[in-house]
Specification:
This protein is α/β, with parallel strands linked by helices. The chain is built from ten helices and 15 strands. The protein has three domains: 88 residues, Alpha-Beta Plaits; 120 residues, Rhodanese-like domain (Oxidized Rhodanese, domain 1, 3-Layer(aba) Sandwich), CATH 3.40.250; 54 residues, no CATH class. The protein has a five-stranded mixed β-sheet with strand order 4-1-3-2-5. A hairpin with a 2-residue loop joins β2 and β3. 39% of the residues are buried. It catalyses: uridine(34) in tRNA + AH2 + O2 = 5-hydroxyuridine(34) in tRNA + A + H2O.
Length: 327
């Protein structure tokens, strides 16, 4: 029986006081034994949390008690083990980093399409279907026939749109575009961006891939593979059951059975995606960390590394290549 409730949540909403929200939110989560990562920015909140069911529900109720977040969207799944090592509540410039100012996701997002209506839309040959996730996510699963922009981060997506809108591009003279992502948040921003660029018929999968896998029967599914998630489960399949991928601790890439069988895979140190790409100093750190992991494992303890939960008061974290939570 699964013991931990996992909730992926987000809301685009104007939060000019977001800095003041961080400390009370962190303390409330900690009191209710909830872990995970929550991002706060002036444009809203985004994150994934996990813990005892009553604890997670208490946090959701706490957030929705703020009238601005009364309509907070969340999706639930279950995990056999706690999928997060620690609790983080971070201040960001954007809750999902596109790097384009004044993209009004709250008011300009495209048309929502419910999961049970998604198949009919993407089966239409006149619709361009775009996976707005990053390449490492797409590599383990996507909708059949969807376009992969091959981005390493969401900040590259606007440039891809500009390139593909030109002569001979995939979006050139296309009037209907359907987009999808893990939980829906990147789609809200990407569809708003497309609309700002003059695209009028833009759609996105309501609730994202997670809601689709939760609600659409596998025999009716257009999904092929597994869905990457930003926690220790690494991937999920239909019904939101845990998938079969693990994470390379050196480069954070998802690893399938073939990757783990490779001669280039050394647990905690390297994999076929990153072998030979790290400095000797980095490799030494990975080896030392893996020793500590194995020592904790031999003691039947969980290695969680250095506690990094709170930022200095009022500081806003700069975006990195791989965020703690993209959805």
């Amino acid at each position: 029986m699964a013991h931990f409730l996992v909730a992926a949540l987000y809301k685009f909403v104007h939060l000019p006081d977001y800095r003041a929200l961080r400390e009370p939110l962190f303390d409330f989560c900690e009191r209710h034994e909830v872990k995970g990562t929550l991002l706060l920015a002036e444009e809203g909140i985004n994150g994934t949390i996990a813990g005892p069911s009553e604890g997670v529900q208490a946090v959701l109720a706490y957030l929705r008690a703020d009238p601005r977040m009364a309509a907070l969207s969340h999706k639930e799944s279950w995990a056999q083990e706690m999928p997060f090592y620690r609790l983080k509540v971070k201040l960001k410039r954007e809750i999902v980093t596109m790097g384009i100012p004044n993209v009004q996701a709250q008011s300009m997002a495209g048309t929502y399409v419910k999961p049970d209506e998604w198949n009919a839309l993407i089966d239409d040959p006149d619709v361009v279907v775009v996976d707005v996730r990053n390449d490492y996510e797409v590599s383990i699963g996507s909708f059949a026939g969807a376009v992969n922009p091959h981005t390493e981060s969401f900040t590259e997506f606007p440039q891809w749109v500009q390139e593909q809108s030109g002569e001979g591009g995939l979006l050139n003279k296309k009037t209907r575009v359907a987009m999808f992502c893990t939980g829906g948040i990147r789609c809200e921003k990407s569809t708003a961006y497309l609309r700002s660029q003059g695209f009028e018929q833009v759609y996105h999968l309501e609730g994202g891939i997670l809601k689709y896998l939760e609600t659409v029967p596998s025999e009716q599914s257009r999904w092929d593979g597994e869905c990457f998630v930003f926690d220790e489960r690494v991937s999920v399949v239909h019904g939101l059951d845990q998938g079969h991928y693990e994470l390379c601790r050196a480069c954070r890439q998802p690893l399938g059975a073939a990757d783990r069988a490779s001669d280039l895979f050394v647990e905690g140190i390297s994999c076929p995606h990153c072998y030979g790409k790290h400095s000797e100093e980095q490799m030494q750190r990975f080896r030392e960390r893996q020793k500590q992991v194995e020592l904790a494992r031999s003691r039947r303890q969980r290695h969680i590394g250095v506690r990094m939960d709170k930022q200095p008061a009022g500081s806003v974290e700069q975006p990195g290549k791989h965020s703690d939570t993209a959805e």
